[in-house]
# Entry
Amino acid sequence: MTSHRLQHIVPGFAIFVLASVVTWLSFTEQPAEAFLFPRVISVVFIILAIWNLIRAVTGMSKVGRGITVDTLKNLAPGLAVMLLYVFFGAKHLGFYFGSTLAFFAIYSFYDPASWSSIKDWIKRVFVTAAFMAVIYTLFAVVLQVHTPRGILF
Amino acid sequence: MEFLNYFGGVFEPWAFMLLLGGTIGGLILGATPGLSPTMAVALLIPFTFHMSATHGLVLLGAAYTSTVAGGAVSAILLKIPGAPANIATALDGNEMAKRGEGARALHLSFLSSGVGGVIGILLLIFLTPVLAQWVLKIQTPHVFWIAILGVTVIGSLDSKSFVKGLLSGCIGLWLSTIGYDEIQGTERFIFADALGGGIGIIPALIGLFAIPQVLDMMAKGRVDALVEALEVPRQKLAASMRELTRYVRALSIGTVVGSIIGLIPGVGGQIAGLVAYDQSRKMSPQREKFGTGHPEGLVAAESANNAMVGPSLVPLLTLSIPGSPTAAVLLGGLLIKEIFPGSDIFDNHPEVVWTFINSMLVGQVLMVIFGIMIAGWAAKIARAPAPIMAAGVLVPAVFGSYSVGQSVGDVHIMLALGVGMFILEKFGFSAAPLVLGLILGPIAGDNFTQGMTLAAAQDGPWVYFFTGTLNIILIALVVASIAYSFWNNMLAGDKAPVAEPVVGDTK
# Structure
């Protein structure tokens, strides 16, 4: 079995599991009237999911490149920052402080400029501050959105 | 000629400011590779939440129009299409720029976009009210089938794989059923507290369109993606305008092709530009010059992708079926204001719909003027490094999702959907049908439930949903859209791994 075929089988199987759960819940949960429409959807959903899985297993599913190890390696730090930012930083540190840290971390990590040059770090700090000033003006001043303050800001 | 009564609304100070801001901002966003029109409009929706429906739609319409045209700037000067709609533009536009004719190419591009765009909006103005009156005859089962048709058409036509397109639509329909069912007063599929209120359209739109693009940028790692922009020497606009009259054939082909393709739900600008380019080449006596920097190719492609914008809103404003993924996002923008396409919008909110349409007409003129003025400058901004863009899209995406319901749960949903969509896209699934399923799901669901109740009191569901001329026509269209896509897939095969797209999104 080629790695490309395996790459298609895994999401195909995951979608099949999801479709099975949706179908199971649609036909077992009560009151039945509330689940009439989900039942109709789930029948089509499970048929398509099975079809998709069969295509993946037989190697007929080829659209999409899949996810390479390099992609995962490149993504890992950024994704970690995103998850920390959204699930922890924004609420507990404060929306603006968390956002500033997330912007700075992502920008700094993926910036191809040198990590040892002080000039480049100053540029990163300046860009982050300027960007967050725009965001603050838009959301706090113009739209007056009240964001969680957390322990900082 | 009802639309003439509402022209004044466009020139109200606040509306005009939004139109101007949306146009200029849209041109810059459109010129930025990786920021597609769909994503730009999705990110703007939270801002419209604080505006009146008219003002919100003026802003979104301006952004839609100008992002499509703005994509030509980076296509011509950087050879990176700002949006897939500008792929054909890059073929000849960049060759012209390399010869030192960048200004000429930009002038021709914006002028032909303007001509195509104006004709497209005029089609929208004259076709929509006629269809909207016809829509009055539509009843509960028909609305259900129309919603299903919207999902199947986009699912079938917008995806490279027929099965995956329809599966995306199904996932969207299912996601729309999550939350509290108001009719039965019961909870459905609530696996986490954040899902109690269901999946909001705005967090979903932002997550599904913006987050995959952020992750795409990150996935490239620490690479310096800066591309040198070509210099733009000055050229007199009058000379470009005179020159455009020499390309009437290409302009006509582009406008006609764009308008027709725009009317077909789910097809969109990328195809419009490429088909117009191809047809123009076939009909040109100088076809061998196409691809070497021939202005005809540029004119055909740009007039087509902007002529598509107006007609893509015809099925949206009459039947709730968007002509393109960006139009699907606009539908979300309408529904959150509790404005429903069809006769409702024309009978009960004429000032909203006509000011919106008129603003798009005026927006075409502004787009040409400012496009030509700021093209060179926009190209410089478009070269913003990918890390700044990734972080710069993520933060407003988080704030935008939060600001609508002031709920951190919405931000979690946005991120979860975005990461999920990024993974699905890597395996050939497409965001557009999923979004449409999510948007049209409640319409289909409510009408299905209502129809079942009515059917129980009449001749049963079979008669209610499957008989009657309009039901049969709609069912036939649903079947035809699926069969057409299935047949195409059989002919083309589920081809080998597709190339990574130049930009992140479909339209």
In short: Chain A touches chain B through 72 residues (CB under 8 Å). The helical segments of chain A are 3-28, 36-57, 69-93, 95-110, 118-142.
